[in-house]
Design a protein that fits this description.
The protein contains ten helices and nine strands. Helix content is 44%, strand content 9%. The longest helix is centred in the C-terminal third of the chain and has 30 residues. The relative contact order is 0.17. The chain has one domain. It is an alpha/beta fold. The radius of gyration is 17 Å and the shape is globular. A hairpin with a 4-residue loop joins β8 and β9.
């Protein structure tokens, strides 16, 4: 990806060097197994040896009709200005540029619908940090916490994406960040609550099926972001989309289960197969509009 100039959102913080201890985190798939806030229907994240969590809801109440955006309480800067945080190293700088573009794109999309967009915060940490949903740990990968409306990233994950998952390239990392923004859109639009309600009172297989639909729509929305960003500033370069598609394939449930030495069990899938995730990302990129992704959550 190419950025002609650095543009850094003011909603970026760092917890690096703040001495947070380890412990069980509530973000990511690990957190999905713990309690109400950390249920698997509320928090996404990438778990290095198992799955990637990306959440997003339906387009029906994307711009109005759902829960109104509420500014998170307790939002505080971790002590460094965004520009200082973002210029600390090349990987962080890239992540800041990507995040800022996602914020800009969604603000424009909301504005076009006459809605104000309340962005999340982006928080960097190293090995261990603290979110409103509990401890953050590097093994979780990037995750979104709905309680403090924060996207949490240990940038060491991007090298893991290449070395462990076999998905190198800068757009693979951008795809991750764009998906975490999708978690935020889900929260402020009220879709997360809608889907959780649909998941109550049904069996595990049905719950998982709803989760898969949410994940695939998130993949689709990441493609929409890439298309919108490219139109606005020719951000993408040759081969970028292919990098994202490789990443989507690497984190499909069937591929991850095989990599773990297991036979794929479709009833246990919570994110979709590699082929489904690739198709969803491609659909969003080719359609270039949130409407392109509406079908994933129809009937919920």
């Amino acid at each position: 990806m190419r950025f002609d100039e650095d543009r850094f959102s003011g909603n970026i913080e760092s917890q690096r060097g703040m001495g947070f201890g380890g412990g069980g985190g509530l973000g990511g798939a690990g957190g999905m197994l713990l309690g109400l806030v950390a249920s698997r229907f509320g928090i996404g994240g990438i778990v290095v040896l198992l799955i990637v969590m990306f959440l997003f809801g339906g387009l029906g109440s994307f711009f109005g009709g759902g829960q109104q955006a509420v500014s998170p309480s307790g939002r505080s800067n971790a002590g460094q200005a965004s520009s200082e945080v973002c210029r600390s190293d090349d990987t962080t700088r890239f992540a800041c540029n990507v995040y800022t573009r996602t914020e800009e794109v969604w603000a424009q999309l909301y504005q076009a619908q006459g809605e104000a967009f309340d962005p999340p915060k982006l928080v960097f940490y190293s090995q261990a940090g603290q979110s409103g949903c509990g401890a953050a740990q590097a093994a979780m990968g990037p995750f979104y916490c709905p309680l403090d409306q924060g996207i949490y990233i240990d940038t060491d994950f991007f090298s893991e994406l290449s070395s462990r998952f076999g998905a190198p390239g800068d757009f693979a990392g951008a795809y991750v960040i764009a998906h975490e923004m999708g978690h935020h859109i889900q929260t402020i639009s009220g879709i997360n609550d809608q889907v959780r309600s649909a998941q109550r009172g049904v069996g595990e297989a049905q719950q998982n099926a709803l989760q898969v639909r949410m994940e695939l729509q998130a993949d689709c929305l990441a493609g929409v972001w890439a298309a919108q960003a490219n139109r606005a500033g020719a951000t993408l370069e040759a081969g970028d989309l292919e990098e994202g598609l490789r990443a989507a394939a690497a984190i499909g449930d069937d591929t991850l289960q095989r990599s773990a030495g297991r036979r794929p069990v479709p009833e246990s899938f919570t994110h979709g197969t590699s082929a489904q995730r690739q198709e969803a990302l491609r659909r969003g990129f080719q359609g270039g509009s949130p409407d392109s992704c509406a079908g994933y959550m129809q009937g919920v």
